[in-house]
Structure formats: C-alpha cells, structure tokens
Amino acid sequence: MKNIIYPGTFDPITNGHLDIAERAATLFDQVMIVIANNPRKNSLFTIDERIDLIKDSTSHLNNVIVHTTESLIVNFARDNNSVALIRGLRSISDFEYEFQMALMNRSLAPEISTLFMMPDEKYMHLNSTVVKEIAALGGDMSTYVPEVVYTALKSKLSK
Ligand code: ADP
After folding, report:
1. Within 13 Å and on the Cβ side, how many CA atoms surround 80?
2. Distance, CA 31 to ligand 1 centroid (Å)?
3. What is the pTM of this model?
4. Which helix (H) or strand (E) covers residue 87, if one does?
5. Where are the domains of the chain?
6. Tens of pLDDT along 84-107?
C-alpha cells in the first residue's frame, strides 16, 4: 500500500490545499494530511480545530486521513512507512524555500522523496494568510475555502 504524507500548517485548510489533496488521493492508496505542530508559529485555529476542519473538508475522499505531529516530518513519514512527501508549488517564490526543504529532507532521509504538485490556476495566488487577512477585513473568501472553514472563520473573527 502506497501511503504519502501531505505536511503543512493548514491554518486553516483552503481550496488550494484541498486541490492538492484531491490530486494526491487519485495517485496513492492513502494520503495522510499531517499538521506540523510548531508552537513557535502563531496560529488562528488550534490543532483540534484544524483537524476538525480538515476532516470535514475531506469527508468526500475516503483515502485521506488527518494526523498531527510535533516531530520532524521525515521521522513521522518513516514511522508511518510513507513513500514520499507531497508539497504544493504555486509560484517561483515557493520554489526557493521548497527546494531547500526538499534537499534537507532528502539528506535526513534519503529513502523518502518529495513530490511537487501544482494546483488549479485559480488557486495559484491563494494561501492561508491571505484568506485570514481578507476575512478579518470583512471580504468575501467563500470561493477560496471549504464551507466549514468559511463558517469557522466568520465565527472566530467575530469574537
Ligand atoms: P507550510 O507552513 O508548511 O507552508 P501551509 O499550510 O501554508 O504550510 O502549506 C502546506 C503545503 O500546501 C505547502 O506545500 C504549500 O505550498 C501548499 N499550499 C498552500 N496553499 C496552496 C495553494 N493555494 N495551492 C497549492 N498548494 C498550496
């Protein structure tokens, strides 16, 4: 069984993340979306909230599961017998950072590859930070996030 890890912060999951997860789900037996729990990053949603939002947003994909880890992603991948990591690539600006990460991960765990996928072009400019900024300023981001995320953002930001 080929199992792949899709790691990230997912604060919150957007339609861009979902696009990548859907593509990966057609290629691998199992996709594990793994929330990297980095206490140094200030997040809007708690880990549990992010897990629930991802579960709800991927309920139509029966080979996608959600996990969280505080350990190194390559160690998590090894422990779970994953063949590879998947990352989304939107633009040249993503490339530099992703290239570095992929090479560092390969040096730590040569048996685990990093694969890059491009989302549909309508999500190329999308990231979680932009979504949160638009939402905080009262803009409509309903076409960029799953419905559950839209509702969660509204309620979180109205508090
Ligand atoms: P990280 O902090 O690891 O970058 P993110 O949650 O921001 O975590 O992103 C996780 C992964 O999803 C990264 O590979 C990122 O490039 C990818 N990603 C984020 N937004 C999009 C998008 N709109 N389209 C495609 N991939 C995306």
Report:
1. 26
2. 15
3. 0.95
4. strand 84-88
5. 3-124
6. 999 999 988 889 999 999 999 999
Distance in angstroms (rounded) separating the CA atoms of residues 133 and 118? 23
How far is residue 36 from each of residues 7, 75, 76, measured CA to CA in Å? 6, 12, 10
Q: Whose CA is nearest to atom 17 of ligand 1?
A: 88
The 10s digit of each residue's pLDDT in 27-65 is 999 999 999 998 888 899 999 999 999 999 999 999 999
Instruction: Give the pair of three-digit tokens for residue 152.
Output: 């969660």
Give residue 76 CA to ligand 1 midpoint distance, Å: 18
Chain centroid offset of residue 121 CA: 17
3-state secondary structure of 78: helix
Q: If residue 16 lies in a helix (H) or strand (E), which one and from where to where?
A: helix 15-27
Q: Any idea which fold 3-124 has?
A: Rossmann fold (3.40.50)
Under 8 Å between Cβ of 33 and 54: yes
Q: Within 10 A of 27 (CB to CB), how many other CB atoms are there?
A: 12
